[in-house]
Structures are given as C-alpha cells and as structure tokens.
Design goal:
This is Serine/threonine-protein phosphatase. With 228 residues, the chain is α+β, with helices and mostly antiparallel strands. The protein contains seven helices and ten strands.
Length: 228
C-alpha cells in the first residue's frame, strides 16, 4: 500500500510479484530535493522486475539483485546525463524462495525488516543519521528526531558506480516488512513490530500508514507486508 502522505506528489514506487518460482518485493523512494524522483523510483522497480524475469531461476538470487541494482543505477545515471538532471532513488528489494530463504538488496534508506515474536532484524540504512548511530553519537530514538534524518549517503542514479548491501535471511514463520522512510522515520520500531505481528498483511499495511499519518509524517508512505 502506498499513500502520498504529507507531499503533493507520490515519488515512491513498489513491486510485489512472482517470477521463476520466487516472490519479489521492493520499495523505491525518489530522493527528495532531486528532480524527477518519481521517474527514478519507477525505473528502479521496473528494472528489478525485468532482471528477475530474465535471470530467475538460472542465476542465484544474490547475483540477480546485484545485476538489478547495477542496471538500475546505470539507467538512471544515463537518464540524468541525457536530460541534465539529478534524479535519484533508494531501493530495498527482497527475493524469497519457497522454503522461506530471503535475499535482500539495499541502497539508500528504504528498509526491510524481518519480524518474529522473539526478534527483529533490519537492513542497515545508508544515511547520515545511521552513520551517527553507528558512531555512538545518536541513539536510534534520537535519530528519528534528527533534522538530517532524510539525508542518504548513497542512492541510485547519482554516481556511475553503486554498491548495494546484500543480506541473506530466513523468513519462514516471520513477517517481512519493506517500507519507505515515510513510515520508519516516524513510527517507532516497537509499534511497527506489534502491528506486523498482530494483523493480517492487508490490515497491517493500512494500520502502519495510519500510524505514520498520526505521527505527522511529512513524506510519502509505502509499505509491503508479507507473511513467511
């Protein structure tokens, strides 16, 4: 589910589908302050889908993700050079097999979480405030209130090269949540966890977006919820 939230235009894009025996989920968020963020985010998810369709099940999912991120970055970078723009987007994408094994690729601060009653695992945001958290300067709670929380340290389309963080996890029996920062920059992780665990996916999506609005989110809000 995606909502314009506190913006005039929705520059988020998402995909939830299936190809080659794998489930594919992703959220992309056009970088604020850069022209045509909505174009960059749509390009990212489209190229991810195309790459998955072409390469699965022939290649390993981690390799497919690496190819997809490189292709998306190259395409958006070329678009910028051709048009004199600086369009950019985040992308967090997951490929899941039938056993519940999950491969996750991330550039920027869109986030994937794997939630169980006992634990929460999440991708590491490529952002300014995350670097402050890593250095012990800010707590996660302080990072949510920091005025620079929307500054990403890497995005697709701004440089000729990009390095996606690739993770491998298990989601059997867990809840997979992928979101743009319009959700997780405003709704505490503890609240996201409770909603994800106690609601069916469709209800969880609605409740999470409502929670972001109640928290006065000023950004677009996109969230995918899937049960393993």
């Amino acid at each position: 589910m995606s909502d314009v939230g506190g913006r005039e235009q929705n520059e988020d894009a998402w995909v939830a589908g299936r190809t080659g025996g794998y489930d594919i989920f992703a959220v992309a968020d056009g970088v604020g302050g850069h022209a045509r963020g909505e174009v960059a985010s749509e390009m990212a998810v489209r190229i991810l889908e195309e790459t998955a369709d072409e390469c699965l099940p022939g290649l390993k999912p981690a390799v497919v993700l690496e190819h997809a991120f490189l292709r998306a970055n190259a395409a958006i970078y070329a678009y910028n050079r051709e048009n004199g723009l600086n369009a950019a987007t985040t992308l967090s994408a997951a490929i899941v097999d039938q056993s519940g094994k999950c491969w996750i690729g991330t550039v920027g601060d869109s986030r994937t979480q794997i939630i169980t009653p006992a634990s929460v695992w999440q991708t590491r945001d490529q952002s300014y405030v995350q670097s402050l958290v890593d250095a012990g300067i800010l707590s996660p709670a302080e990072a949510m209130r920091h005025p620079g929380r929307n500054i990403v340290t890497q995005a697709l389309g701004l440089e000729s090269r990009v390095r996606a963080e690739i993770d491998e996890q298990e989601i059997a029996g867990a809840v997979l949540v992928i979101s743009s920062d319009g959700l997780h920059d405003y709704v505490p992780a503890t609240v996201i966890r409770v909603i994800a665990l106690e609601s069916d996916p469709a209800t969880a999506c609605r409740r999470l977006i409502e929670a972001a609005k109640d928290a006065a989110s000023t950004d677009n809000i996109t969230v995918i919820v899937a049960r393993g």
